[in-house]
Amino acid sequence: MSFGFNTTAAEAIAGIDLSGKRAIVTGGSSGIGVETARALASAGAEVTLAVRNVEAGERVAAEVGAAGVGALELADLNSVAAFVAGWSGPLHILVNNAGVMALQERELTADGWELQFATNHLGHFALATGLHSALALEGGRVVSLSSRGHQRSPVVFDDINFAFRPYDPWVAYGQSKTANVLFAVGATARWAADGITVNAVHPGGIMTNLTRHMDDAAIEQAMSSIELKTVEQGAATSVFVATSPSLDGVSGRYFADCQEGHEISERDTTGHLGVAPYALDPANADRLWELSVQATQRVHAL
């Protein structure tokens, strides 16, 4: 079967047996996180939903057949540390799915980081590095949810928190999504010998709770230029990258529409598959990794 824009999560995982495999899906109680968890559970995986709202997570877990629910607030490193401390045994699939988008006003975490960067990147970085030993036990896969929106901005290392430049919701979102790709590049350089693969994905444009910080006019403007997917289609690339036998050993790449994206020389306004060169640059990945280690080191100290 040829996979593409219209592929659903159920189609992407058809015929794959995940019996005996353990998976974590962050943000698994809404949007494409639900369909990602549903697909993994349907193939026999023991799925844990890592969510902010445990009550909502428990309802979804019962609906999709997930094995459990854990509390996780990605913008709070103490919460990340507690989740990591509560995990034992191997981890085969980690889907870093949760996120925030287009916060209209600049917000900082208690640690002083811009909230989109902190949630979308730093929290997931702390989670993945905290679970490294579990992923390494039997060679796990990590899926880092990026976005076509990464083309809006590289990581601006000299002013990540918009202290000296005007805050722009989409630029802030874009730099956080670039960080999600750079994490895959940086982790591949460091974890390949452990049998861990890490890839970034663009799920496509989907109307989900991710748009909750946008007003109706902003949503209409953002969505007017793209072809929308259903949530079942939006989860497909995550599920494909997390489970496809064809990607055994493949790491540090960017995928969209269940295909590897191509590097572009300028912002892609016509399709979903392009990845900006700054998002794949090893030097940028190294710089981001060192910054992220420093920003999240207390997770590993607790």
Descriptive report:
- By secondary structure, the chain is α/β, with parallel strands linked by helices.
- The protein has a single domain (15-301), classed as 3-Layer(aba) Sandwich (Rossmann fold).
- It has eleven helices and twelve strands.
- The strands form three sheets. The chain has an eight-stranded mixed sheet with strand order 3-2-1-4-5-6-9-10, with helices on both faces. Strands 7-8 form a two-stranded parallel sheet. It has a two-stranded parallel ribbon with strand order 11-12.
- The protein starts with 8 loop residues before the first helix and ends with a helix.
- 52% of the residues are buried.
List the helices and strands and how they pair.
Blueprint (H helix, E strand, L loop, with lengths): L8 H5 L8 E5 L4 H12 L3 E6 L2 H11 L3 E4 L5 H9 L7 E4 L18 H16 L1 H7 L2 E5 L23 H23 L5 E6 L2 E2 L9 H8 L4 E2 L1 H4 L1 H8 L10 E3 L2 E2 L1 E2 L10 E2 L6 H20 L1
Parallel strand pairs: 1-2, 1-4, 2-3, 4-5, 5-6, 6-9, 7-8, 11-12
Antiparallel strand pairs: 9-10
Helix pairs in contact: 2-3, 4-5, 4-11, 5-7, 5-11, 7-11
